[in-house]
């Protein structure tokens, strides 16, 4: 069994994947664009997958406060540039809270540190 991927094609055309020599069409990831309220920058948000949630949980396993910035770094670009967790820390609170509400799964409640951890 052999799977090969080609680079994404221009103009949003779906990428091609071959499986045992058969060409398969792979749709581009679902994305949406929002304007950040304070900075007025455009943020592109990719719809996450289970693996994004797993990776964010794994990368923030030592520090739960890094979960949201890590998930944002996996799913968001601002003006075409990735959002690294350190950039998220320096964002205006209105911009940061909008991105947080956009990337967290429905019904997901981030863990708040216990009082003794503060």
Short summary of the structure?
This protein is an alpha+beta fold and 118 residues long. The protein has helices spanning 50-59, 67-75, 85-89, 93-103; strands spanning 3-5, 15-19, 22-26, 31-35, 42-46, 76-78, 81-82. A 4-stranded antiparallel β-sheet has the order 4-5-6-7. A 3-stranded antiparallel β-sheet has the order 1-2-3, with no helix packed on it.
Task: Walk me through what this model shows.
The protein is of the alpha+beta class and about 120 residues long. The protein has a domain at about 30-105. About 30% of the residues lie in helices and about 25% in strands. The chain has a four-stranded antiparallel sheet with strand order 4-5-6-7. Helix 1 (about 50-60) packs across helix 2 (about 65-75). It is globular. The termini are far apart. The model is unreliable at about 1-15 (pLDDT under 50).
The main sheet comes to: 4 strands, antiparallel
How many beta-strand runs? 7
Tally of helical segments? 4
Q: List the uncertain runs.
A: 1-13
The radius of gyration computed from the alpha-carbon positions, rounded to a whole number of angstroms, is: 17 Å
- The structural class is alpha+beta
**What strand line-up does the widest sheet have?**
4-5-6-7
What fraction strand? 15-25%
The average pLDDT value, as a whole number, equals: 79
Compressed to H and E, one letter per element, the order equals EEEEEHHEEHH
Distance between the termini: 52 Å
Shape: globular
Helix share, percent: 25-40%
């Amino acid at each position: 069994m052999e799977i090969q991927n080609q680079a994404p094609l221009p103009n949003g055309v779906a990428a091609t994947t071959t499986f045992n020599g058969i060409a398969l069409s792979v749709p581009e990831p679902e994305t949406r664009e929002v304007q950040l309220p304070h900075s007025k920058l455009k943020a592109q948000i990719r719809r996450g997958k289970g693996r994004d949630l797993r990776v964010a949980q794994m990368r923030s396993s030592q520090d739960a406060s890094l979960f949201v910035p890590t998930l944002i770094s996996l799913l968001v670009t601002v003006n075409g540039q990735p959002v690294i967790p350190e950039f998220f820390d320096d964002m205006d609170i209105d911009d940061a809270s909008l991105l947080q509400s956009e990337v967290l799964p429905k019904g997901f409640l981030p863990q708040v540190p216990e009082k003794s951890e503060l």
